Each structure stands twice: as structure tokens, then as C-alpha cells.
Amino acid sequence: MVWILLMMTGLLAGILGSLMGLGGGIIVVPALMVYSGIHEFFSHVTPQTAVGTSLLIMIFTGLSSTLAYMKQKKIDYVAGAVFFIGSGPGALTGVWLNKGMETEPFLVWFGIFMIFMSFILIVRNRLPAMKAPKKGIRRTYIDAEGDEKEYGFQPITGVLTAFVVGMCSGLFGIGGGSLMVPVMILLFSFPPHTAVATSMFLVLLSALTSSVSHIALGNVEWLYALALIPGAWFGAKIGAAVNQRLKSNTLVLILRIFLVIIGIRLIWQGVTGT
């Protein structure tokens, strides 16, 4: 039963992570922390092992999604590489910050962070997108109405923004996509499908960087990973396929509700210890 639970968790993380560019860690980390409070098999899970295991899973989620989005030709590789210049060091900084964090404060802060992510998902489609800069990296694309539009950013702005996102990735084990997708859409005017695909490419690079550090620190539960990886791999392929065919408004709504419920649950567990 425990193995089925982990495989389904990996599948859900892969689907939602790939579909919305979130990476899947935003599902895996809170799931492991919640399981630690309700089942003896997970009793030795710590914030460090939850994050370390999640980042290892996101390598496979990111790789599976990236391969799928490569076939769809939706990834902006130059933008992804520029963002990684900032997110790579940011991820290592996040790993360092996570190293000495105790369980109770971690649960509270992560719960607050998840509720904040829910708020970001609420407002991301209601705020006006900024215009592409006159200098820097610029791209054009044809929107759903057939109109030609531009997106882009100044490299230094992209690097600094990605550093903050990468730091959150290493600290919370979420892959950074939950922040990077709204940032790309709102601040840099990326088309949503390109933002999601590029985010998953960035998730892959960031997870590779930060997971190495967590493996060296012994923060990976390999037994859990063996059960999570197959579901995450196939879930990422499903998510990329659904992303190409369906609108994500309903899934965004479900995810917002999910984030709030789990966020409140984690805060309660951190405050009360139950």
C-alpha cells in the first residue's frame, strides 16, 4: 500500500509539474512531510530528506518533460540558459540555508510559502503583462488570435530573478517553476506554453545542480525515490501531452485549492507537532 501511495504521488507530481511548469517538488515535499505525521513508515522523514528526495525526483520529471517539449518545439533554450546562470548559484545557496533548518519552523514557513504560491496563481492571469525591452533578449510569436507579439528581458534582470527562484528551489525543493512561470509570463511577457516548457528545462538544470549537494549531504531517501521515479517519469509525459491539448484554468483552480489545504495542514503540523 505504501509503495502504491508513493507511485501515485510521483504520478501526480509529474502530471501537475509538467503541465504547469512547477517541477513537481511542490507536490512531493509536502506529501512526504504530511505522510511523516500519519504513517510510521515515513516517521524518519526530515525537511532535509524531503527536499533532497524531491530534487532527485525532479531530475527525472524535468528530463521527461524536456524531451516531450523538445518535440513540440516550445522551449526557449537561450532564455533557459540565461536563467540557469542565476538559478544554479541560487539553488546551492538554498541548499546551504536548508542544511540547519529544524522541522517545526520548516513546516510553518513551507506552509506559508504554499499559500503564497496559491495567491500567485490567482493573480497571474489578471495582471497586465509588461512589454518586451528595447534591448536584450527579444522574441516574437503568434498568439491564439493570430496577432504577432513580443516577449523578452534584460539578461541581468533574468539572472537576478532566477537567482531568487533557484534559492527557493534549493531551500524548499520545489524546482522553482511555481515562481518562474508567473515571472516569465507577467514580467517578461512569455507566451504561457513557452513559459511552462522553458521552466521545465530550467527545473532539470536546477535539480541536477542542487540534488548533487543533497546527495553528498545524505539527504536522499533512495527507497522512496525508487517508488516515486516511475510515476514521476510517466506523469511528466502525460502532463506535457495534456498541456498541448487542454486549457489549464480548471487545473489551476484545483491546484490553488490543493496548495491552500496542504499549506494549512503543514502550518498546523509545525505549530502543534501533530
Structural account:
This protein has 274 residues and is mainly alpha-helical. The protein has one domain (2-272). It contains ten helices and two strands; from the N terminus they run αααααββααααα. It has helices spanning 2-20, 25-36, 47-72, 77-99, 103-123, 155-172, 177-186, 192-216, 222-245, 249-272; strands spanning 137-142, 148-153. A two-stranded antiparallel sheet has the order 1-2. A hairpin with a 5-residue loop joins strand 1 and strand 2 (148-153). The longest helix is centred in the N-terminal third of the chain and has 26 residues, at 47-72. The radius of gyration is 18 Å and the shape is globular. It starts with a helix and ends with a helix. The model has no long low-confidence stretch (mean pLDDT 82).
Quick description:
The protein is mostly helical. It has helices at residues 2-20, 25-36, 47-72, 77-99, 103-123, 155-172, 177-186, 192-216, 222-245, 249-272; strands spanning 137-142, 148-153.
Sequence-ordered SSE layout with sheet pairings:
Elements: H1 2-20, H2 25-36, H3 47-72, H4 77-99, H5 103-123, E1 137-142, E2 148-153, H6 155-172, H7 177-186, H8 192-216, H9 222-245, H10 249-272
Antiparallel strand pairs: 1-2
Helix pairs in contact: 1-2, 1-3, 1-9, 2-3, 2-10, 3-8, 3-9, 4-6, 4-8, 5-10, 6-7, 7-8
